[in-house]
Amino acid sequence: MSIGLLSACGKQGTGGSTEGAKATPTPTKKADPTPTTKPTEAPKVMDGEITVITREDGSGTRGAFVELVGLQEKTADGKKIDRTWDKAEVKNGTNLVITAVENNKRAIGYISLGSLSDRVKAIKVDGIEPTVENILAGQYKIARPFNIATKGEPDAATQDFINYILSTEGQAVVKDNNLIPIKDPKAFTSTKPTGTINVSGSSSVGPVMEKLKEAYGKINAGVEIKLNVTDSSSGMKDAADGTSHIGMASRELKDSEIANGLTPTVIATDGIVV
Questions:
Q1: Whose CA is closest to 109, among 119, 101, 117?
Q2: Which of 137, 178, 184, 253 has the fewest CB atoms lying closer than 10 Å?
Q3: What CATH number has the domain spanning 51-143?
Q4: One fold for 51-143 and 144-273
Q5: DSSP state, residue 200
């Protein structure tokens, strides 16, 4: 901030004479001493291009992300168009996105909140941190459901496992994995069936499903659960054609998937972090 220095002039007598008038010294103001503290330096701007990381086609996380942040457009005939930057690096799976960002300080990508670890750092969106509390409060907007899907009437083993996932005990596992549980879960009592359950699909749902599988196995060791982590679209296809008993999707099911006979069940709500 600049300071203006003003000086007072001596009063001049009639006819231009200054006789009899005392000279008035011009007051001066000392300049403020030079500050001893250094001004705050602006943050350094990182040189180089930003590497944009995205998920593959078929990823539920990608589908939910482009829709929630406005990268999806609809044509006049209702077709959805993904406007993800065509030069973005495509990674087939959550862990590959994490690894790519971890190894490149100029990279940015998006993953499930439930998969976030200290390997990478999440940023604020619109000034809001991606936390369970902020999602519940409606402040962090980039959130989507985790779904499982079945076709027809599940067999006894599959139904027992689903009952566990939706129970108080199963939802405690969901919460422990930084996800938002469903409302009003009930206590679980296993019917102790035996058999094998094939589960496939989303790499975002995969980590919590692995934990649910382990926890259920401690209650009922008579069921073997085989988990195949791919992507949401593949999981829905597997459930529809009978390859899997349960498909996993990190998004809402598409109309075409429901038309194929799939029944979705929400098991948790998850945020997408950038």
A1: 101
A2: 184
A3: 3.40.190.10
A4: yes
A5: E
62-101 CB burial, b ≥16 within 10 A, e <16: bbbbbeeeeebeeeeeeeeeeebeeeeeebebbbbbbebb
d(Cα 213, Cα 197) in Å, to the nearest integer?
10
Residue 3, both tokens: 């300071």
Sequential pLDDT tens for the chain (274 residues): 332 222 233 333 334 433 333 444 444 445 555 555 555 565 565 677 899 999 999 898 998 999 889 888 888 887 888 899 999 999 999 999 999 999 999 999 999 998 999 999 999 999 999 999 999 999 999 999 999 999 999 999 999 999 999 999 999 999 999 999 999 999 999 999 999 999 999 999 999 999 999 999 999 999 999 999 999 999 999 999 999 999 999 999 999 999 999 999 999 999 999 9
Query: For the chain, what are the domain ranges?
Result: 51-143, 144-273
Q: How crowded is residue 200: how many other Cβ atoms within 10 Å of its Cβ? A: 24
- Token look-up 């195949």 returns 228
Q: What is the pTM of this model?
A: 0.77
* Residue 165 Cα to chain centre, angstroms: 23
Question: Measured in Å, how far apart are the chain's first and last C-alpha atoms?
Answer: 40
In eight-state DSSP terms, residue 128 is B
State how beta strands 89-91 and 195-201 pair: unpaired
Domain 144-273, architecture per CATH: 3-Layer(aba) Sandwich (3.40)
Q: Which residue has the tokens 């019917």?
A: 191
Residue type at 223? V
